[in-house]
Amino acid sequence: MLNEREIESCYLGQFIPVHYHHNMLMDNNRMHSFKSAIAHAVKPGMKVLELGGGTGVLSWFAAANAAKVYCVEFNPDMVQEARKFMAINENGDRVEVIHADAFEYLPPEPVDIVICEMIHVAMLREKQVEVIESFKRRYRQKFGDKLPVFMPEAVLMAAQPLQQEYDFEGFYAPIVQFQETAVVHNNSAELAQPAVYAVIDFTQPNGMSYAWQGKFVVERDGTVNAMRFITKNILSVVEERATTIDWLNHYMVLPLARPVRARAGDVLEVSFAYRAGGSIPSLEATLEAAVVFEAGQDAVAAPSDAVPAYA
């Protein structure tokens, strides 16, 4: 019998099928970004912990320099996969694959870096934020106040109003869609610039809830019938070059229950609320948009915070 957490994990994504993890190995954007960040951050002789290791590939990247890597995975199928892969890859003997719950596990010794790639767009579905906050509390109790470096070090989340096409060979279906980040999406018309609604800094305490109400200046006429959610993971800070190594998740496009007609120059107000690790429908159910200033109303000034920048 599965316990309550295991049942939730099956629903929210921790027990995703093995082939999904195989697809992640074929995601060149993800793989290259993490390999570069790990190569920069993990110095020779370091001790590394990965929470939610999957196939173990990120732990294996770390093993190129690390003296020891603890790779924790909750899904027994993935534990078997990771151990198999470690056995046939150079330096795999430096990785100890441990079948354990990331909410409960602590390494037997202090570690220098903690990798946690439980990342979904908008920090939904997977429990990354909650896992890291729990880990920090327990780690301090065992090893003292000095925390390891976390990867990612921070996360920026933004939202953007869209006019999204939902015609599928004549079949109208407003569905959740995921989009690649490096291509042009002809079925998505961007009606305003993205706005950052939350920043997560894993060196600081982080709450579990995101509630946001923000404004956008509409740049072109259209019907706002969807919101694009953007998640940028700052994997590692390269201080010597004053830059970062980043990974941009696929965009997530959520349909609005009540589309809004807007003209260029209008100010659109958008609001939503959800919990880190929650379901996509929990965010979708709270998502609302309304025009709060029409471009023809000269007597009312547009708010100064209407177009927060997203870099």
From TrEMBL:
Keywords from the UniProt entry: Methyltransferase, Transferase
Single GO BP term: methylation
UniProt GO MF annotations: histone methyltransferase activity; protein-arginine N-methyltransferase activity
Pfam families assigned to the protein according to its UniProt record, in alphabetical order: Methyltransf_25
SUPFAM superfamilies: S-adenosyl-L-methionine-dependent methyltransferases
InterPro entries documented for this protein: Arg_MeTrfase, Methyltransf_25, SAM-dependent_MTases_sf
Domain Methyltransferase: 48-138
Protein name, as recorded: Methyltransferase domain-containing protein
Organism: Pseudoduganella plicata
Organism taxonomic ancestry: Bacteria, Pseudomonadati, Pseudomonadota, Betaproteobacteria, Burkholderiales
